[in-house]
Amino acid sequence: MKAWPLLLLLLGLPAGASPRVPLCERPVVPARASTRPFSEELERALDAFVRAELQREPHAGLAVGVLRGDQRWVGAYGQRDVAQGLPATPRTTWRMASLTKSFTAVAVMQLVERGLLDLDADIRTWVPSWPERRWPVTPRQLLGHLGGVTNYGRLGPSQDTGPLDTAGAVALVAGYELEAEPGTRFLYSTWAYNLLGAAIEAASGQSYGEYLQAHVFGPAGMVHAALDDRRTRDEHHAAGYRLRDGRLVPSKKVDVSGRFAGGGTRASIEDLLGFGKSLLDYRLVSRESTGEMQRSMSTRDGRLTDYGMGFATWPLRGHYVVAHSGAQPETSTLLLLLPGEDVALALTSNVEGQAAPLKRIAYGLIARLLEGEEHRLNARLRDSVDALVNEGLGRVFGYGLAYHHWAAHGPGTLPEAAGLPEAFARVTRLLDRATIAREPAAARARILAAHEPRGDELFIQVGAHMARTLEEALGAEQLRGYSSRGPLAFFNDYLAVCESRGCPETLRFDESLRAELRRLTP
């Protein structure tokens, strides 16, 4: 990135515009401060699981990191450079690819907190070289991929644009019209994040790389993180590979400076854990900003995008997942947080196209880390109506438990409840067997939308109330066990607790749904 005087010209700032004084740096916090190992038994289980997963297909190098509270485990496997026989280690650096977007989002929110960026102003306020469009585009929309900005356009994700500065990176997309009116459609876009990178530079008075070092990498203890410039890589950087006909071949060499804020950094597994821990501890942005970043945005018609600001988010067996992955030539990456359970997982590979295996490994690690061996109650399904009722029960359970963890033990907030008795009644009607049998397609559509704003977030409201009731009655530890035991145990135990505590009848569903639960429970 260029020095400030040239940046003024590249971004088209008015003549005479004065640069801002660079922001003060935050103190560096070591990534491994105050951590302790897991039990030997758990570490052996985690290691054995990862090794078993690596036997499923050819691999080069892999690094895995796990944090839960103040406990930490890191494993490195295979080779960072196959040709030279160099092993992957915790010190190895990997191309981060789109995981860079999470770094960018944190930087944007820091500047918002300091009053230097406005999430809802026109991006041209800071990037006047971005041509005026039919509709203004805001940083909030760009962060959530709701700005309508194209993703790569004519350039594929593996195309080498050559070395580019900020102005050149912004120019890559400047000639494209918006593909949708902002706010109406989720359109994942690396180029949108380049606009945010340019805004970071204009608002802070620092280059994008300098800003990250001072305000993100430094405070998070990410000592080996940097912009991914091939000229500054050291001997610890992983060589990249892709699979061709079941064999590893070297990756195509691609300069990623043209996607700098959307996919242009490198880091080690230790660095990623430091970043994850800093997010969980609210050391990079405030608790309120963290919650805002981790809340899924929605389109104008009330459809959740499963993406907040710089992070994707979804429920997994009652866990609230906040994550970002990365995919480019040379690399596959994944950072996954469970903010309601104080957990961070990081995975990096120097083999392309590993999104599915990395997610599979992450999910398996979560099971071994947080989920016990309790017997799961699987529903007895006799027909398609049973299947849809069970789908609805599972979604009430999954969204409700996840959002409860996130709001009660993390930075999140629950949707405003219009009235719990009516919400319980509406859920009962949605899962009514006769209604489903009469109009199965329409019933399925309503069930699949019932956690979204267009469905008044009914499943979240009802499920979170059930989770809170169970935690108050049984304790947090037993509540966590439902991730293993499943939705039927969750519903049946809630009704049992309500019976013992004398919950209002309006908060126990009605007899028709209770009868369905009895039918489905083995």
UniProtKB/TrEMBL annotation:
Tell me the InterPro entries matching this sequence. Beta-lactam-related (IPR001466), Beta-lactam/transpept-like (IPR012338), Diverse_Enzym_Activities (IPR050789)
| Origin species | Cystobacter fuscus (strain ATCC 25194 / DSM 2262 / NBRC 100088 / M29)
Q: Which UniProt keywords apply?
A: Signal
Return the SUPFAM superfamilies for the record.
Answer: beta-lactamase/transpeptidase-like (SSF56601)
Keyword set includes DNA damage: no
Question: Which Pfam family, any one of them, does this sequence belong to?
Answer: Beta-lactamase
Q: What is this protein called?
A: Beta lactamase family protein
The secretion signal range is 1-17
Residues in Beta-lactamase-related domain copies: 47-357
